[in-house]
Design a protein that fits this description.
By secondary structure, the protein is α+β, with helices and mostly antiparallel strands. Helices cover 25% and strands 35% of the residues. A hairpin with a 2-residue loop joins strand 11 and strand 12.
């Protein structure tokens, strides 16, 4: 079982929603579409489902060209951010409805509904109406109705976005287990890098209608192919800084320099862009060779046990994520520290030329 997109694109008038895209999804895989709002995630899913027809390219399902085939004729299930249930039906009947439309027997329907309800922890609620359920239970009902179709392709378009934190965490833990048992191809759209890491599998990063990278989720996170992918796969986005390589030294802002060791040693002399994630910017020196910068504090955000610090550094805007609740004064000049092992180096036009040392060691 496989889903292959070959050069598919979507344009509406002069506006391109999806640039020519090649993608292959295999049986039994979890595939995350990660990108900001309007990056093309839903448009790509609509192509996969058959709700839209590409302007160029074709879509293959198990080797057969299904480009233009109606969604009703495909074994596809889709769950949206706004979960949809039939309010007048019981949970049992909601889950059973796709199988009834397919003309399956009462015995087959009953067995499948009970199995799926047990998987989704809905067994005690089968006689209730959706409006008698909590938000998380209603979304489970919508997921169960999608799964009971035994579809080869299950598309989840930000299905947890409208749920509260506790329910999101609960369902995030359950979805990979459901996926493992079903054997279908799962495609899950999200704007949150943390969610992609929790779900695992493969991740395709999207930016302005383009898939910038696709591969195993940890690999895409640790070794982004370019600065755009690094920005997408970081929340808050990755910080950037212009650097210069001269001989055996790499020169950063504020007169900082570090030895050009490891992958940096092979870089040609010139100007590059350094990138580092917010959680690697620190207010105390922990590494002996840490780079030290002076930056102006613009805003702080306390998130409980951590604090986001928004900084200005010679025209660049940085965000740091530091442990603890910090008593800091807006407008102060802060000393911040960065371990060179956590620095990615990109060419001026974007491609990665040297991954962070910690990524190579992972």
């Amino acid at each position: 079982m496989s889903l292959i997109l070959e050069g598919v694109s979507i344009a509406v008038g002069a506006e391109t929603h999806i640039y020519p895209t090649d993608l292959e999804l295999k049986k039994g895989t979890m595939n995350v579409l990660l990108g900001p709002t309007s990056s093309g995630k839903t448009s790509l899913m609509r192509l996969m489902a058959g709700l839209d027809v590409p302007n160029t390219g074709r879509i293959l399902w198990n080797g057969d060209d299904v480009t233009g085939m109606r969604v009703q004729d495909r074994k596809v299930a889709m769950v949206y951010q706004q979960f949809i249930n039939y309010p007048s039906m019981s949970v049992y009947d909601n889950i059973a409805s796709p199988m009834r439309l397919m003309g399956q027997s009462a015995a087959e329907i009953d067995a499948a509904v009970k199995k799926t309800a047990d998987l989704m922890k809905l067994t005690p609620m089968l006689d209730r109406k959706p409006l008698e359920l909590s938000g998380g239970q209603q979304q489970r009902c919508a997921l169960a109705r999608a799964l009971v179709k035994n579809a080869g392709l299950v598309l989840l378009d930000e299905p947890l976005a409208n749920l509260d934190y506790k329910l999101r965490e609960e369902l995030r833990a359950e979805i990979p287990k459901i996926f493992e048992e079903s054997g279908s191809i799962f495609v899950y759209a999200t704007t949150e890098p943390e969610e992609a890491l929790l779900l695992g599998g493969n991740t395709a990063t999207l930016w302005e209608g383009r898939v910038t990278q696709f591969g195993l989720t940890p690999s895409v996170y640790r070794t982004p192919v370019d600065a755009t992918t690094a920005r997408v796969f970081s929340d808050p986005p990755m910080n950037f800084l212009e650097i210069k390589k001269t001989g055996d030294r790499v020169h950063f802002g504020d007169g900082q320099a570090a030895p050009a060791t490891g992958s940096l040693a092979n870089l040609a002399d010139g100007t590059y862009t350094a990138g580092f994630r917010p959680n690697h910017l620190e207010l105390e020196r922990h590494a002996g060779d840490a780079l030290e910068f002076t930056a102006k504090l613009n805003v702080t955000e306390i998130t409980g046990s951590e604090t986001f610090v928004h900084l200005s550094h010679h025209g660049d805007r940085w965000v740091g994520l530091v442990h603890g609740v910090r008593d800091l004064k807006i407008g102060d000049q802060l000393r911040v520290y960065l371990d060179p092992a956590h620095v990615y180096v990109f060419a001026e036009d974007g491609p990665l030329v040297a991954p962070a040392s910690y990524a190579n060691a992972a």
